[in-house]
Amino acid sequence: MALTEEDVLTALKDCYDPEVPVNIVDLGLIYGITLQPDADSAPAFPRQRVAIQMTLTTPHCPAHTLMVEQVQNRLAGIPEISETEVNLVWLPAWGPERITAEGRKSLGFE
Question: What is the pTM of this model?
Answer without folding.
Answer: 0.90
